[in-house]
Amino acid sequence: MTDSPKRLFILDTNVLMHDPMALFNFEEHDVFISMTVLEELDAGKKGMSEVSRNVRETNRLIDQIISNASFEQIKLGLDLERIHPNKERENLHLGKLFFETEPMVAQLPETLPSHKADNHILQTGLALKLQYPSRNVTLVTKDINMRIKSSTVGLHSEDYYNDRVLEDADLLFSGWEILPEHFFEENFSKMKSWQEDNKTFYELELDETHHWYPNQCLLSANESGFSAIVRKVEHNIATLEYMHNFEQSKRSVWGITARNQEQNLALNFLMDPNIDFVSLLGTAGTGKTLLALAAALEQTLDEGIYNEIIMTRATIPIGDDIGFLPGTEEEKMTPWMGALMDNLEVLTHSDGHVTDWEKESTQELLNKRIKIKSLNFMRGRTFQNKFIIIDESQNLTPKQMKTLITRSGEGTKIVCLGNIGQIDSPYLTETTTGLTYIVDRFKNWPHSAHITLRQGERSRLAEFASDSL
């Protein structure tokens, strides 16, 4: 390795455990992997978890680039672009991959134990910084404490940014927009309206100030109550559909009515068979699980659109063995499904005029039509005509989310529920979680919809606690 204007990125083990393709995400700059990282990858290759799979994929990529290379070639660096999946693409200019082929020694503070793997990586980084003073040497790690220690010993460090969907979670698509107060009054004369299959549609020409997405909800700022769904945008012409009102008792869904405007938006999409994918994002108490489960029961048991409801959620740590819990797959998952069970109890709550036999019959029917599955066993399966509810989806990586959604067969609807402010996975953030990823990637697809719920509807006690504590 020589002094070069290119930056030199030292990859921490957790970056490769998170994203094996990280090797190719530093453009023309060089990448360095220490012997400690190779040792940690070797230790993490066994198992069926997502992390273990990523480690094995990283090992395969490194083996591919290092095969048939002599020791002298390895010392000089190996061209990354020759094993890039899109190496045939034009203008692909990647840097080189370097390994720790000789001991890298630098002085660390005496307070840092030299036997720890993280400190060995810091020592390697400092040695590279001393050896190549004209190069910008940067440690890339997803470990916050590692970045803090790196800064205290004088080594520049950064988070792994390539997996970020957005720069800021506040920029995430909310699924709805409040229009100016007199928007529809001012544009009514220019709007073309018609009815089709008991639905009312409007056509409106857009100017450059409006950028709407398919299935985005438009809400009036005044008290007119006019609300519509953007069904199509082509050549600056938007087709809007007047929204159903699920706040009325006559349009209740499995006995549940919308308590606020946001819940009404959600029910419009949950009850629409033309929408194959719905994501609901919101804090605890906004009604995500209750609405999804009510819509699933209505369309499965009453309307017969789907033949089964599948409920699952991310167990943290995701992908770890649940075999220590007793019983079948469904019984093992039951402790993780408390929220879904609580909402199911609300939906099947009797008014006191039914017999025990009727209660047992209802419960038996629900047990036959509602299945609780573990994410661990979703790979390789295909679900036909199912209503799938994925709870706590903020704890899924983009890759895991892709694995789940690609399991859907003909006639299947998937509903993802989550709160990006409550992420339990240590290597995910609001901008890198699979829920944020899927909301951003699906917002242009006409068969998907997203709603961010902000208004809590649990109880006056919960509302006061949320506001005051």
UniProtKB/TrEMBL annotation:
InterPro entries: P-loop_NTPase, PhoH, PhoH2-like, PIN-like_dom_sf, PIN_dom. Keywords: ATP-binding, Nucleotide-binding. One of its GO terms (cellular component) is cytosol. One of its GO terms (molecular function) is ATP binding. This is PhoH-like protein. Signal peptide: none annotated. Pfam families: PhoH, PIN_4. Belongs to the PhoH family. In the N-terminal section; belongs to the PINc/VapC protein family. Residues 7-148 form the PIN domain. CDD domains: PIN_VapC_PhoHL-ATPase. SUPFAM superfamilies: P-loop containing nucleoside triphosphate hydrolases, PIN domain-like. It comes from Hydrogenovibrio crunogenus.
